[in-house]
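Ticket #4471: structure export looks truncated?
Reporter: QA, pipeline team
Priority: medium

Steps to reproduce: submit the single chain below to the structure queue and open the exported record.
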Amino acid sequence: MYICVCKGVTERDIHEAVRQGAVRMRDLRNSLGVTGQCGVCACHAKATLDKVLNLEASQQSMARSS
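Actual output as written to the record:
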């Protein structure tokens, strides 16, 4: 799903950015250009970032438990 139409950023792009170390909106702005033009995508980008970070954290926690 597209998160930022202006820059053509998808949910998958945000997943990849997190895998490469993005943890803040500033990281997404610097690496993907999210919110760099009109800003309409800001809340969707933030929600997606939070979702991906929580998913990554829970996967790491499960891996440590195994």
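Status: closed, not a bug. The export was complete when the record was re-opened. Leaving a note from the reviewer for reference: Strands lie at 2-4, 9-10.
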